[in-house]
């Protein structure tokens, strides 16, 4: 029996990339997984199939984050499948493109913050009545909030820095209920978001060289960190930002 048997998880943005890897890992550990997606219906269906085909339990729910009423709509869809949640992973997010600071207009800025910051804030707030005592919240952040600076990702880093602040604040707020709240900060990971940068031998070598381990992160590397934070083994870890960049800032 898996360490998360009897638990229900919700992973936002689980139709592809890191979100899919997290959903697969939590399911492998025994959790029933809600696979949220925004527009990648086929990807979410593939995630669900990958879980159920190996004996796990999963269901897909669709909500466009970053739109008015998104959090309430997400939980209404979730409620059709489950009567509570034990693990909430706020993974959905957008980079917003790499561009000079001077080229970031208000529309791009607002979209980044709507999806990366406002959505998880209210997904958590609306989810608190459903989140069981002793539960887990894991927010997917970035290495760019802790020492790594890239002017082309200024708005993205700002949006995730706000999420880091929320992580620490909610750890204090929800501690009396035994709920832990932590964040994981990946670096460049081998997903479609970084496909162009990893498409050449030179690009892959440059990214691998950022880590003392001299390789490119796989989505499963991040999923395994999340699985630890979701487990009982991490019951005494809360309010933390966990470096998931393979030591790229050493």
Automatic annotation (TrEMBL):
Pfam families: adh_short_C2. It comes from the Bacteria. Belongs to the short-chain dehydrogenases/reductases (SDR) family. SUPFAM superfamilies: NAD(P)-binding Rossmann-fold domains. Keywords: Oxidoreductase. Gene3D superfamilies: NAD(P)-binding Rossmann-like Domain. It comes from Microtetraspora malaysiensis. This is SDR family oxidoreductase. Coiled coil: none annotated.
